[in-house]
């Protein structure tokens, strides 16, 4: 079960990253960057300040923090405030995909959601250092004086840079792969269409020749009732066979393209998980890698429509598995003791 959970999460998160990246269209975001940044800053500062202050004021009354000292209550308040800023790209993308929303407002919403996640990582790095100083009660041990915060920020900046580079390369690899599969699909479809037309023409000609032969032999009136159904059945078989082949080929190519895209996203997260287990850290942020890959395909290649079609056709089973697993992972019994704090 644990392995299945990891597989579903890796596949779904890679898929979500690709979907989010394709929503960032530069043509729709042109001229709106400044308002987006202003809205983003105000949203983060307002949420962080209000949640942190509110939790700090209520902390003496909550069972979770009632027995804590003032520095520890402040530390918990900072962590809760930082976590409250985070948004869920997966939920936003799922709703947008389900409703078929698109346009400038959709791009702005996704931009704020994804940029907020990036800011949350930076905020969490600083908050962690501040919390460590509060809990350890070391005088003068602040974020600006602790070299650990610079190591965290430098590591994060390095991971973002590597993620952008890998994501750009992956985007062009996906573009080349989709171009090849699209060309192959077009060739196979054209061949199947030609075969269908050829079979239909031959079947029609064969039926017409049979009828002319029977009529010229003077048996048309007697065999008309018995012969026509047989001719129709034979003609239908000759026409339906290549049509069924054409449909099977198209379905197979669609499944193959969907599998390629999902394997690409799955591989990104699995490689990151392997790095985490092997070295204790990763060179990249897998969600940023898949997001940049989708962004590159959507804005700098000619495969945007193909990738959008693949993501749309594959979205329902991926989201069903992902959100079903998410719901099954909820442990309400663990939430009940601290329900007032959660509310």
TrEMBL record:
Q: Which UniProt keywords apply?
A: Membrane, Transmembrane, Transmembrane helix
Keyword Aminoacyl-tRNA synthetase in annotation: no
Protein's name in the database:
Cation/H+ exchanger domain-containing protein
Which superkingdom heads the taxonomic lineage of this protein's source?
Eukaryota
Give the organism's phylogenetic lineage: Eukaryota, Sar, Alveolata, Ciliophora, Intramacronucleata
Q: Where are the transmembrane segments?
A: 36-62, 108-136, 148-174, 180-205, 243-267, 287-306
- The UniProt entry's coiled-coil ranges are none
């Amino acid at each position: 079960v644990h392995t299945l959970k990891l597989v579903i999460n890796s596949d779904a998160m890679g898929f979500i990253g690709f979907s989010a990246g394709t929503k960032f269209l530069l043509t729709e975001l042109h001229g709106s960057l400044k308002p987006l940044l202003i809205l983003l800053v105000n949203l983060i500062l307002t949420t962080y300040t209000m949640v942190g202050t509110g939790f700090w004021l209520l902390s003496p009354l909550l069972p979770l923090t009632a027995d804590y000292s003032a520095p520890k209550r402040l530390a918990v308040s900072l962590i809760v405030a930082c976590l409250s800023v985070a948004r869920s790209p997966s939920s936003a993308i799922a709703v947008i995909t389900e409703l078929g929303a698109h346009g400038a407002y959709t791009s702005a919403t996704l931009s704020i959601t994804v940029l907020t996640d990036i800011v949350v990582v930076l905020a969490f790095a600083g908050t962690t250092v501040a919390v460590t100083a509060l809990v350890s009660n070391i005088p003068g041990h602040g974020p600006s004086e602790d070299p650990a915060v610079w190591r965290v920020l430098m590591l994060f900046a390095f991971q973002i840079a590597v993620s952008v580079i890998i994501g750009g390369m992956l985007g062009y690899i996906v573009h080349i792969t989709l171009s090849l599969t699209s060309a192959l699909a077009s060739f196979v479809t054209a061949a199947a269409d030609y075969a269908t037309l050829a079979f239909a023409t031959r079947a029609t000609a064969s039926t017409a020749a049979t009828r002319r032969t029977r009529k010229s032999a003077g048996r048309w009136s007697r065999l008309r009732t018995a012969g026509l159904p047989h001719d129709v059945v034979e003609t239908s078989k000759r026409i339906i066979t290549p049509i069924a082949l054409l449909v099977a080929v198209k379905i197979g190519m669609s499944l193959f393209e969907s599998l390629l895209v999902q394997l690409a996203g799955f591989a990104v997260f699995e490689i990151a998980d392997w790095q985490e287990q092997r070295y204790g850290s990763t060179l990249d942020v897998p969600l940023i890698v898949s997001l940049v890959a989708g962004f590159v395909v959507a804005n700098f290649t000619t495969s945007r429509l193909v990738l959008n079609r693949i993501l749309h056709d594959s979205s329902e089973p991926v989201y069903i598995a992902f959100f079903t697993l998410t719901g099954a992972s909820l442990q309400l019994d663990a939430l009940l003791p601290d329900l007032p704090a959660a509310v």
